[in-house]
Amino acid sequence: MCSISFNQKENEYLVRLEGRIDSDNSPNVEQAINQAIPRGEKRKVTMDLLKLEYISSAGLRVILKAKKNYHDVKLVNVQPVVYEVFETTGFTAMMPIAKVLREISLEGCEQIGYGMTGLVYRMDIDTVVKVFYPEISKETAERERNSAKIAFTCGFPTAISFELATCNGCYAIIFEQLKAKTVSELINANPEKVEEYGIRMGRLLKEIHSLKTEDERLNDIKALYIERSRKMREWLTEDETAVLVGLYESLPDTGTMLHGDFHSKNIMEQNDELLMIDMGDVGYGHPLLDWAGVYLTHIAINIQEPNGTLKTIGLEKEKADIIWRKMLETYFNTTDDDVIDRKVKLIRLYGMAKSSLVPVLAPNFPEQYKEKVIEVTRETVIPMIRQYNMEIDF
User: Fold this and answer.
1) What share of the chain is helix, strand, coil (3-state, %, to 5)?
2) What tens digit of pLDDT does each residue of 218-236 get?
C-alpha cells in the first residue's frame, strides 16, 4: 500500500510517498501524480521518500515517467534500503537523489583532532567522524565529502569518505579510519627524521600536483580567490582591490589538483604511505596557490608570533624551517640557493596576498586583528604586488 500527498507553490510541487510502491499499486501512484501535476516544461517536482519503505521495478518506472514528464524532478530523504535500489539501478547517476542522513552518537568516542570547521572523533577501529561546528551548513559539509570522493577517484592520496550524517544537530562526515599518526606527531616522536619527512612531503606535494582535473564539482581555486579579493573592497579602495584581483587573474590556468591546506598536521602515514586528510579546500588551480598556504603555515606564522608553528601544526620553528627547506629542494629538484630564493619570493608574494584575505576568510576574527591585517595589506602587500615583475616559472 502506498499513500500520496501533494503540496503546491506556483510551479513547484512536493509529493510525499509513504509505504510501498510495487506492481500492484504502481498504476494508481502514476495516475495520482499525473492528475495532481499537469505536464509542462516548467514543473518542478520534489518527491519526499522519508516514509517509503520499498520500491519495485514497477515503482522505478513511475519515477522514470515523472522524470520524462516534468522539467525538474528530485528525490529527497530517501531511506538507505530504498537508496540502495536507486544506486544499484543507476538512478543516482540520472537525477538528484538525497539519502536521509543517519544520526550518530559520540558517546564513548575519543576526540583525536580539531580544525577550523569541526572536531574529529574515532568511532571504532574502522571509522572516524568529522563533526562540523553548528554554524557550518549542510551544503558546506556535502561539498567537503563530495570533494574528498572526487579527489580519491582522481588518484589523490587520501582516505575514503563514506557518508554524510548528523550528530547533535550538527552535520558530520564518516571517514575510513587511518591506522596512522600525523607527520607532526611522527616528527616529534622521531626528531632525527625531520629531514626525511620534509623530503617525503615535497614528493607528496609534487605527486598531488601531477594530477590534472577541471571537474566542475571541485573548487576552482583561482576563481575563489578572485571572488574573495573582490569582496575586499569593503575594507580597501577600488584601486587597492583591483591590485589584489589582478594578482590572481595573472595566474595561468593549469588544471592542477590542489589540497588547499597542505601541512604536516594534515598528513598521516599509514603502512609507509603518506595520505592527506582535511579535504574541505581541495580543488584545482595553479600550484602557487598550494605553496602560498605552505608558506603561511610553516614560515609566516613564526614571523607573526614566536614559535607560532607549535600552536598551529604542532612543530617547533626549527623543525618547520627544516621541512620547508627540504620540501623546496625536493619539489624543485635543486639545492641552488639562487633558484630557491626566486621561488620563495614568488611563493611569499602569494602567501602574503592570501593572508590579506583574512577579513573575508574569517569574518568572525576580532576587529582589532582584522584592522591589523588591513594595515599590513595597505602598507606592505599592495606595494609588493605593484612592484611584482617576476616570471611564474613553476
Assistant:
1) 50, 25, 25
2) 989 999 999 999 999 999 9
